[in-house]
Specification:
Layout (H helix, E strand, L loop, with lengths): L16 H39 L1 H26 L2 H10 L3 H27 L1 H7 L4 H13 L2 H17 L5 H12 L1 H11 L4 H30 L11 H6 L1 H29 L5 H38 L3 H28 L1 H6 L5 H33 L3 H26 L4 H25 L3 H13 L5 H29 L1
Amino acid sequence: MGDNKDQDFFSHKFPTTSQVVEELKELWSMALPITAMNMLVFVRAVVSVLFLGWLGSLELAGGALSLGFTNITGYSVLVGLASGLEPVCSQAYGSKNYGLLSLSLQRMVLILLVAIIPISLLWVNLEKIMFFMGQDIEITRMASIYCFYSLPDLLTNTLLQPLRVFLRSQKVTKPMMYCSLVAVAFHVPLNYLLVIVMGLGVPGVAMASVMTNLNMLVLMAGYVWVWRKNEVVFEWGCWGGGFGVVCDGLGKLMKLAVPSCMMICLEWWWYEIVTVMAGYLSNPTMAVAATGILIQTTSMMYTVPMALAACVSARVGNELGAGKPYKAKLAAMVALGCAFGLGFINVTWTAILGHRWAGLFTRDESVKALVSSVMPLMGLCELGNYPQTTGCGILRGTARPVIGANINLGSFYMVGTPVAMGLAFWFKIGFSGLWFGLLSAQLACVMSILYVVMASTDWEAEALKAEKLTMVEMGSCNEHKIMECEKDEESKMLLVNENKNKDDIC
């Protein structure tokens, strides 16, 4: 008998307190460094918004519009597609199929390289698109400048996002945190140099963000390259199989990547579409500026459930890949419990610190008042967002992103959008009506996901699916291994026959 930690539970027994505590330790040993890394990425975004705010209200509004547009059309797509690696890498690592783990990374990089081509065309034409949609001319022109200078960040993210998933699936989280810390430490000096000293203004803010992401990528890639033998599983064998080996499994990986992308993007897009809708309110400059601050605030709060979702996806995938369905179920239930508890914390602080929080971003009293009036409502949204985001991570870990995509589509666009537009524009409630729409969407989403995860998931069936996913390879990497093994067997047989012949001669 092995260690109890390495054994699965019985289907008819509940886990003990010690097993729950052990899972909590396992989950948060991964989630805390990822949360810290996400918070550092948020700090980078906040610094950019602060510098935009110091440049002026127009620059802040233009930057907020550009950040919304680039998130909708670019970053959300790249992060979403890269999340398609989560079930493959985590389950492959759990089943010790390291060839699939490394090969899938290369395949995802190729997918993202193709994806950034149309995204680049959209970014270059932001000004024309926003003019066509009737956005304010001055805000749009400022946004197009920021967007243009952010173009190199697309190439950086085609490597950075898959690498994060690749490392996280192997429980390598602390090195990512340290790399992010070093990169973000230089972000403020970069902004000060480019914006204040060199006087580049909005282009300087965009260039500083690009350089910070590039620093993160170089540091993480350097870690994998230099220290991978000590901590990171990285097989070169499949990489040498040629371009055909990589392309052979692209279609099957895309079947996971596309719905994973839609699951993330449908939610992410709705948050950013709020910025666009705010541009149609009676005072667009003030509304868009306030939305930019609120979006950054939700981004800060999102760092925790995003880390929790990513880590529970890895935990569930690892256990399913290892053939332990009830340890996977325990990981899912523990993560959901943590999500609800953390959601209540956000309700409390947003209700208390609204006006003071807004003062960190702007000195405009009207923008401060608008932000503080909506902060308590946004806190209620996070009470649903935490378990909903965590549930989406569980669905990715079980390789069921299609379900999550359908839930997000129905919740945010069949429920949230009609409520938001009806309250904001038809009933003339205005800015707060947009956030009531978000609240209704989150309620619908969390109830649906909790039903799927807690009531209708057959964990033993999911373990069998994981075995099929990892053993029946998504390309020809294993086929090459099988061929090599067959060649080895043939060589052994030839050697045995040769020795027999020699014995006969003797």
